């Protein structure tokens, strides 16, 4: 004997309302837990940055004297600036999709250890 449960529209809305109520109440508790976690993460980040500032004298790449020499307007190798053609060509990477070539090798029976 097979039973089919039928539910009226009014019962469905009542059940959905109760479910949403539980989600909202649960959300408030979750919100407090997330806030406590974010506070902990903030304290952790602050301590890491303070420790780094004590250990490392140069913390930003643009403050590095060697980088400043490379980009020097008169004698620097990349004298056209950080966004110039040569710096873009030398310092940026390009993506080449090689999946078709790899698939062709695998179809030939070549086993690749990646």
UniProtKB/TrEMBL annotation:
GO terms for MF: electron transfer activity; ferredoxin hydrogenase activity; iron ion binding; iron-sulfur cluster binding
Origin: domain of life: Bacteria
Cellular component terms per the entry's GO annotation: periplasmic space
Principal cellular location given in the protein's record: periplasm
Gene3D superfamilies: Iron hydrogenase, small subunit
Pfam families cross-referenced by the UniProt entry: Fe_hyd_SSU (PF02256)
UniProt-annotated location(s): Periplasm
Domain Iron hydrogenase small subunit: 35-99
Keyword entries, A-Z: Iron, Iron-sulfur, Metal-binding
Record text on subunit structure and interactions: Heterodimer of a large and a small subunit.
UniProt name for this protein: Ferredoxin hydrogenase small subunit
């Amino acid at each position: 004997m097979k039973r089919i449960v039928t539910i009226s529209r009014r019962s469905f809305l009542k059940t959905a309302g109760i479910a949403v109520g539980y989600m909202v109440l649960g959300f408030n508790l979750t919100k407090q837990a997330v806030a406590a976690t974010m506070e902990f993460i903030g304290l952790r980040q602050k301590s890491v940055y303070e420790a780094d500032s004590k250990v490392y004298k140069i913390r930003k790449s643009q403050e590095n004297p060697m980088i400043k020499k490379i980009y020097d307007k008169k004698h620097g190798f990349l004298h056209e600036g950080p966004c110039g053609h040569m710096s873009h060509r030398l310092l940026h990477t390009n993506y080449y999709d090689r999946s078709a070539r790899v698939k062709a090798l695998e179809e030939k029976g070549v086993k690749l250890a990646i």
